[in-house]
Model the fold of this input.
Amino acid sequence: MTAFDCYKTYLAFKNHFTKDNFDYFKYGGKTRASTASFNKRKDKYFFEKMSRQKKDGEI
Done:
């Protein structure tokens, strides 16, 4: 899993629990995240670190 994949998973879970109109299971965890939005983030190192430390099933 790449750092960008980890970021997309994070966004899907965040939207599931904070927005009423997004259901993680209905949309299959898919979001409209772009690599440009990921690269703008100051905490992208966190996702890079998380993708290296955890297996795909743990994330």
